[in-house]
Write a structure and sequence with these properties.
This protein has about 240 residues and is of the alpha/beta class. It has helices spanning about 5-30, 50-55, 70-75, 95, 110-125, 150-155, 175-195, 215-220, 230-235, and strands at about 40-45, 60-65, 80-85, 105, 125-135, 160-170, 200-210, 225-230. The protein has an eight-stranded parallel sheet. The longest helix has 25 residues, at about 5-30. The protein starts with 5 loop residues before the first helix and ends in a 6-residue tail after the last helix. It binds pyridoxal-5'-phosphate. Pyridoxal-5'-phosphate (PLP) binds near residues 45 and 170.
């Protein structure tokens, strides 16, 4: 690993953001949309606050953290910025995260949705949630199976204090480009099918899919929010 000075890391972040924003524009247009139709989230796990603030100063307006504790620790040091939770949430942490993020992207059971609803009502607020989809049907992974998500969405839509704002997925490791695109395209279709049902309290505004390794494929298949960490903050330097 190459050790860089803060100054070198600051300029790497700027350079990386330019490259990623260029790719977002290109892929958005290729998929028949405008560059501004795809939102870039900077995933900030393990990243120190000064680097996150640098990204915020260079156009990032949404950050994502995986862990409740890490988010709460850094938040006081950060320039004002919308934040989402994107990592698996345990029910004993719900009380402390509600009100600190605008959206919880990683809702993977009806039970956790109920707990978020209960704590949001207590706090007098509404929390937006995304339903996490287990796109690869891997046993070890979190999320609803594609075939059960509509039924679960209907159940969750009855809960006070939360509103369903879309879907999120972490794609499995794929052998090739065609395979990953097929997975993203299936989730996009699921998103459209649920949207077409026009159910009360189920909005399909956000389709959160794509990370450093696969965000271009995700945009080409309809993602409107991508979650990028290492390609922004990582140590890669283009010499
Ligand atoms: C870490 C993480 C990301 C970003 O991953 P990179 O490969 O570093 O871009 C996105 N989504 C989730 C849920 C993550 O945990």
């Amino acid at each position: 690993m190459e050790w860089l000075s803060d100054e070198e890391r600051f300029s790497a972040i700027e350079e990386n953001l330019k490259i990623i924003n260029g790719s977002i524009s290109e892929c958005a247009v290729l998929s028949g949309r405008k560059p501004e139709d795809v939102r870039l989230m900077a995933v900030t796990k393990t990243v120190e606050s000064r680097f996150i603030n640098h990204a915020i100063n260079h156009g990032i307006n949404l950050i994502g953290e995986n862990k409740v504790q890490e988010l709460l620790l850094k938040q006081p040091e950060l320039t004002e910025c919308e934040a989402h939770l994107i990592g698996h949430l345990q029910s004993n942490k719900v009380k402390i995260i509600v009100g600190k993020v605008s959206t919880i992207q990683s809702v993977d059971t009806v039970e956790i949705a109920k707990e978020i609803g209960k704590r949001s009502v207590e706090a007098g607020i509404n929390t937006k949630i995304l339903l996490e989809i287990n796109s690869g049907n891997e046993e070890s992974k979190f999320g609803f199976l594609p075939e059960e998500v509509f039924e679960k969405a209907c159940e969750i839509s009855e809960i006070n204090g939360i509103s369903i704002d879309g879907l999120m997925c972490v794609a499995p490791i794929c052998e090739n480009n065609a395979q990953i695109r097929k997975i993203f395209s299936n989730i996009h279709q699921l998103f459209i099918d649920i949207k077409d049902k026009k159910m009360d309290n189920i909005c399909m505004n956000i389709l959160s899919m794509g990370m450093s390794g696969d965000y271009k494929e995700a945009i080409l298949e309809g993602a409107n929010l991508i979650r990028v960490g290492s390609s922004i903050f990582g140590m890669r330097i283009y010499r």
